[in-house]
Give the backbone structure.
Amino acid sequence: MTWGVQYKHSADALLLVFASHYYDADDYIRDYQCFLDTVAAGSGPAT
């Protein structure tokens, strides 16, 4: 469980991501407080 923020980039910048799985929007938590609650509850994905 890692919260990431990208900032300090130009308006025309691109972000390149290398990942081991295809993107699935349902796999992501978009609200920081919800992320904190999930981490505190220990109900995040197993690593």
Observations:
- Helices lie at 32-41.
- The CA atoms of residues 21 and 32 lie 23 Å apart.
- The mean pLDDT is 88.
- DSSP finds one helix and no strands in the chain.
